[in-house]
Design goal:
Layout (H helix, E strand, L loop, with lengths): L1 H16 L3 H18 L3 H8 L4 H26 L6 H20 L3 H15 L2 H15 L7 H53 L18 H5 L2 H30 L5 H25 L5 H21 L3 H29 L4 H30 L1 H27 L11
Amino acid sequence: MGNIISSTKQHAKTVMAIQDFPIIMLINIFLGISFSFVLPFNSLFGIDEVGMSNTTFGIFMMVSSIFGIVFSTWIAKLSDRVPDRKFILILCALAGVIGYIGFAFSRNYFVLLAISSIFLGIASSTFAQVFAIGREILTRSTLPAKQLPLYMNILRTIFALSWTVGPAIAAYVLLYQGFIGLFVVAATCNAVVAVIALLFLNKRKVGSAPKTAASNIPLKQIVFQPVIFVNLLAFTFISTANTLSTMNMAQYVTKVLGGGKEHIGIIFSIPPIFEVPFMLGFGYLATRMKSDRLIRLGALIAFIYFTILFFVETPYHIYAVQILSAAYISITSGIAITYFQDFLPEMPGTATNLYSNSNKVGSMLGFLLFGFIADAFGYRNVYLACAAFTLIAVVLLFGLAKAKKKGVDTKLSISG
């Protein structure tokens, strides 16, 4: 225990001593709070507040996601070409301010769709830019390369910490101030991100990270590299399963297992408690072993988790199973960022965005498939579909590892 405490203190000192890293961690806290205020209440806002139907809400989310993918892909490539991505981060955060202020005061479907598609589509790049800057900061520091996954996971843990308290606080804000208060807080958090970045984040010196030939490579050439494409498919399927599960859980608990709202609250509160220690633990393991092994482990845990959910009989069974949820999310949303960045070390913006977009595409598939699967086969079988999607991801990832062992050429062949 003494060694663990001593090691934790040493890592904390190291983090605080890295120039700009404490600043990007602070930015990540406010970004996480912004996300945690908005995302859990999206459907409540669209359906109950604005009056969308399930179908129109699904279309709303799908169109918004498509625009988000287009904007974030273009911004990611741009950020890998410019000398300093700080001002891109500021512009993305300001787009978030405009977008959430628009959501606070408009209830017109088409106005909201335009705001969500354009301004929040641009703001969706903020996450990728924060982690790309974090990677740059760590790369410029004196840290050994093998320790980068640990410190990137610390940055991801900071984001997760915001989710442990954000939704609960947001619920009180929503209760007393309504959606106007909720979105004003989200806009304020984005404004704080922009101000902190402008005033305290040091501008990268021109020439400290010169533009490389790789930054001019067409995105299509990057995406269809076998090792990247297989991983993108695997993470898309994991994201699809995660989205289906999130949308299905409340219905499953209340309409199949006979539970109440209090059970739903406990079920969703358990994973964040375990995600923080899991993220730190897996981040440490990533310094001792190859990240691809951990990624395969995460996919396998996800498959086991969804399979067990298919067989549970009471809400109480889900409580313990949620620890598995925390474990696989800690890997597939923590280690995965560094994992993708290692594919394209000279293009951290593009690499982080590839990971982020795989999640967005998976979410879109989840939104589109949920109603069909639930209506046609029932809420319990939604988890059978989740298990099937994660099984495909497991097969893809283990197949890639097997190909490497057999000597099949799976190396990246990206050149300018």
